[in-house]
Amino acid sequence: MLEDRTPEASTAPWPAAYPQGYAVVDVETTGLARDDRIISAAVYRLDARGEVEDHWYTLVDPERDPGPVWIHGLTSDALAGAPLFADIAEEFADRLADRVLVAHNAVFDWQMIAREYARAGREAPVRQRLCTIALAKALALPLPNHKLESLAAHFGVVQRRAHHALDDARVLAEAFRPSLRAAAASALRLPLLECLPLTEWSDGPAARIGRQPGGRGGYGSGAGGYRPTAWNRAKKRPPCPFPNPGRYVPGERLRQGMRVAFSGDTSVERELLEDRATEAGLHVAGSISRLTSLLVTNDPGSGTSKTVKARQFGTPVVDEAAFGQLLGDVEPADG
């Protein structure tokens, strides 16, 4: 049993406004693009205080190439005979209903789930989500970075099979329980966000930039299937077709054409974040200049050349979780 490092949480009054239940979720996918598919899903249902009630896991036939097998280990043969998402949608929904969806980089899991339900002509029964990256920041946990393995190590949770949906969900559930109790002990307001369902859907590549919430690039997926060459970092990105509208204004939306730079460790691979930004219509910059619209970093106080220049130029800075939220609603370029 995981040692609880927050004994004071057991005697402190529990905040009345906290949710009554949680669904800790992990999905493995064929990639990160908006037309990629879920290939496995796991849910740990937790009660109001983070205790495990039950868990569930399923493979899913993506009806396409499984994508980066070297990451998730699920080959076409392993997925042969797995149910379609439409076949498991009802059971999945039963495990999500009336609960807050909890995930590591929750915007990604939610958007993949919302798209699958939209394809199936249904709506996921999720109204709120909680990102454990955001919660770790709110708790000021002394983590070296925001990867799941670092959060797990902080709470002494041993991971057995990284990138296996069931084990990732287990690890996150075990790390979430002491996080939740620490938050309750200090009466911390949980970083809950609203989950808006998709009202229309198209997998067509023509609708991929600036049309649907959460458009994201990634493993090079598209209408023609999986293309591993898109992972080649040396591959030159196509020029951004939109003019730079200037700097990002905190509190407002990103706009296509903005120049975005990245610095430091991220929970999602850097190439994938850059692909997401490119597909959303942003210009990925390799350095900081006075023309840079935004710097994305989880450690703005570091002394990297990019963060130093960002401070010198007054370039706006957001962390990875906030950037993920912004990518969900990028404003189209003028004209």
Compact description:
By secondary structure, the chain is α/β, with parallel strands linked by helices.
What is the topological layout?
Blueprint: E1 21-29, E2 38-47, E3 52-59, H1 69-72, H2 76-79, H3 85-96, E4 100-103, H4 106-119, E5 128-131, H5 132-138, H6 148-154, H7 165-185, E6 192-194, E7 259-263, H8 270-279, E8 283-284, E9 294-297, H9 305-313, E10 317-318, H10 320-327
Parallel strand pairs: 1-4, 4-5, 7-8, 7-9, 9-10
Antiparallel strand pairs: 1-2, 2-3, 5-6
Write up what this structure looks like.
There is one protein chain. With 335 residues, the chain is of the alpha/beta class. It has two domains: 19-194, Nucleotidyltransferase, domain 5, CATH 3.30.420; 232-327, 3-Layer(aba) Sandwich (Rossmann fold), CATH 3.40.50.10190. 29% of the residues lie in helices and 15% in strands. It is built from ten helices and ten strands. The protein has helices at 69-72, 76-79, 85-96, 106-119, 132-138, 148-154, 165-185, 270-279, 305-313, 320-327; strands at residues 21-29, 38-47, 52-59, 100-103, 128-131, 192-194, 259-263, 283-284, 294-297, 317-318. It has a six-stranded mixed beta sheet with strand order 3-2-1-4-5-6, sandwiched between helices. Strand 1 (21-29) and strand 2 form a beta hairpin. It starts with 20 loop residues before the first strand and ends in an 8-residue tail after the last helix. The relative contact order is 0.15.
